[in-house]
Write a structure and sequence with these properties.
The complex is a heterodimer of chains A (about 280) and B (about 300).
Chain A lengths: L3 H7 L3 H27 L4 H8 L2 H34 L5 H7 L2 H4 L2 H12 L6 H6 L8 H26 L2 H9 L4 H30 L2 H7 L9 H10 L3 H33 L1
Chain B lengths: L1 H18 L6 H31 L3 H9 L1 H34 L5 H13 L2 H12 L6 H6 L8 H11 L2 H14 L2 H8 L4 H30 L2 H7 L9 H10 L3 H37 L1
Helix pairs in contact in B: 2-14, 3-14, 4-8, 4-9, 4-11, 5-9, 6-8, 6-12, 8-12, 9-11, 10-11, 11-14, 13-14
Classes of the chains: A mainly alpha (about 280), B mainly alpha (about 300).
Chain lengths: ~280, ~300
């Protein structure tokens, strides 16, 4: 005890760093968000309810939610596969492939947006071949799914990779020596160990997709009731100076984001408890 | 000599046969690698290629002219001005937050960490909207601002603040786990030996977090230059004045000036590639050091 007390006082700067952290967080983040939420309360309940349940808005929820869910699911499957291949197998160019996984995180969304629409337009490198099979991606809901898959790609890979690297070989060896075939080992030993990380990555990809704007608006074509995502409607309302309408829809998105964050924190806590 | 080599050989073949139980057959491995690489080629390599192809399709001089266009140059200058303001502020914040969180114990620490992560979870469009409602003509402070002839929305200050908000977590997120992992023994030793706080930070802490900090700054810089949704809401898209590079790309694309749009995009793409190259260099350096430390 006599050692513990002076130890705590050795390092200086708590007041300064904590003070600056809270000041900056307050000015840039907390006060503006607080003012935004306060603004929503200046609306009557009816006004708010009408804004968030407008037919066009409800159609956008369905698209945003559905396409984000599909995109995150695609990323769950392929992300797990990519993480597996990167951790377990050797092949030439592996380090470059590994680095490229972060590209959607580093490439500006507007650049991704015009690249995707150029690829998937009916004259594009990919679109012209899909056209033969009657599949249209650009300016359809499928295009929204493609953009949201792109944007969520790094998350599952990057949450599963470290867990897979730390997975003890002994578990798989024990399973194999007890007579399980490879599929049984993957299903009964490896998958349960990866489950928290998989779910965390899934939730992160979904949350990111839900709020995404830049990469979607080019490829979606923004047709009312068909390919309008919720963030687009917020921009449209704000551009028409309908601040109340924009704020109401924005509040719904903000609440959805907070709920996702709570869920993700819970999942991360579960992951770290498992792999302490 | 010969006996020992046979022993090793049998061990080797034994190990190989035994390892097969926890490995997939070669054909399956190839198939899985094939599927993964096809997926990544389709989603990562093709978009990258189409940007670079679109930018240079009509030759280097067309690319150069597109970059030298006055509106394009104005957007580049504005984007650089913004990162010069935002990145140092967020660097300072990241270091301060990481120092407070990693070196001290206090109540509510997990809550503070979640709070710092939060701006990343908020849709960029909502970030823009938050500041329109705070500073816009019909927002909380709008009347006061216009009576004092100040403009934040549809002007540079608005763009600066939404980008600061959007990129707030990046450096802190890199530094907090790094500094937590490094503990505080080295700093305590330095301070006990008589160095003051600043000296300890410069000579002990900073060298330890250097690479994480560099990656954090580069990532924050790339994200700040590429921010789109939030800026789209607050900028007003005044040509030559409030168009950042991503907004200028959008304007060019909507005017069917595809080559010019891809030319400006190619600059941001190069920046993104440099960012991920630095990330993997930092990771490689870390692994290398850990391997050296283990050996």
């Amino acid at each position: 005890m006599s050692i513990a007390i002076p130890r705590r006082r050795v390092i200086p700067g708590f007041g300064l760093t904590m003070g600056f952290t809270l000041l900056y967080l307050g000015l840039v983040f907390l006060i503006p968000v607080g003012a935004f939420l306060l603004y929503t309360t200046t609306m009557s309940w009816e006004q708010f309810w009408n804004a968030v349940t407008h037919r066009q808005v409800v159609a956008s929820y369905k698209l945003s939610f559905g396409a984000s869910l599909i995109g995150a699911t695609i990323n769950l499957v392929f992300g797990a596969l990519v993480a597996w291949v990167l951790v377990r197998y050797r092949f030439p160019g592996k380090r470059i492939v590994d680095a490229l996984v972060d590209l959607p995180f580093a490439l500006p969304t507007a650049v991704a947006g015009i690249a995707l629409v150029t690829l998937y337009a009916t004259t594009g490198w990919v679109g012209q071949y899909l056209e033969i099979f009657g599949i249209r991606v650009a300016y359809t809901q499928l295009g929204v799914v493609v953009a949201l898959t792109y944007i969520g790609l790094p998350f599952v890979v990057r949450t599963v990779q470290p867990v897979l690297e730390d997975l003890e070989a002994e578990l798989e060896e024990a399973s194999a020596s007890l007579g399980a075939d490879r599929l049984t080992t993957v299903r009964r030993v490896i998958l349960p160990a990866l489950l928290p990380a998989l779910l965390t990555g899934y939730a992160l990809a979904f949350a990111r997709a839900l709020g995404e704007y830049g990469s979607v608006v080019f490829i979606s074509g923004n047709l009312p009731f068909r390919t309008e995502i919720t963030p687009l409607l917020i921009v449209a309302r704000a551009e028409q100076y309908d601040y109340h309408g924009a704020a109401a829809i924005g509040t719904v998105m903000l609440v959805a984001a907070f709920l996702m964050l709570l869920l993700i924190n819970g999942l991360q806590w579960w992951t770290s408890r498992r792999h302490g | 000599m010969s006996t020992s080599s046979t022993v090793i050989e049998t061990n080797d073949t034994l190990a190989k046969r035994w390892r097969r139980a926890t490995e997939e057959p070669a054909w399956l491995r190839l198939v899985l690698i094939g599927i993964a690489l096809t997926f990544l080629a389709l989603f990562l390599v093709l978009p990258l290629t189409v940007v670079l192809y679109g930018a240079f399709e009509r030759g280097l001089s067309v690319w150069y002219d597109a970059i030298r266009d006055p509106d394009a140059m104005a957007s580049i200058r504005l984007t650089l001005l913004i990162v010069v303001i935002v990145v140092p502020l967020n660097t300072l914040f990241g270091i301060a937050a990481a120092w407070a969180i990693a070196k001290f114990e206090f109540r509510g620490k997990p809550f503070l960490i979640s709070l710092i992560d939060m701006p990343f979870a908020i849709s960029p469009v909502v970030v823009g909207l938050i500041f329109v409602i705070l500073f816009g003509s019909q927002g909380w402070l709008g009347p006061w601002l216009s009576s004092h002839d100040l403009r934040i929305i549809f002007a540079v200050p608005g763009i600066v603040i939404v980008i600061a908000f959007g990129t707030l977590p990046f450096i802190a997120r890199e530094l907090i786990p790094l500094m937590q992992q490094q503990g505080k023994e080295e700093e305590e030793a330095s301070l006990t030996l008589g160095a003051n706080g600043w000296k300890t930070f410069w000579h002990v802490t900073l060298p330890n977090i250097k690479w994480g900090l560099i990656y954090g700054i580069i990532l924050c810089n790339a994200r700040a230059m590429g921010e789109f949704g939030a800026v789209a809401v607050v900028s007003g898209r005044i040509r030559g004045e409030t168009n950042t590079m991503p907004l200028h790309i959008e304007v060019l694309y909507n005017e069917y000036m595809f080559t010019a749009a891809f030319a400006v995009s190619s600059l941001l793409t190069a920046l993104a590639l440099v960012t991920i190259a630095i990330k993997s260099a930092v990771e490689w350096y870390d692994e290398h050091r850990q391997r050296l430390a283990a050996a």
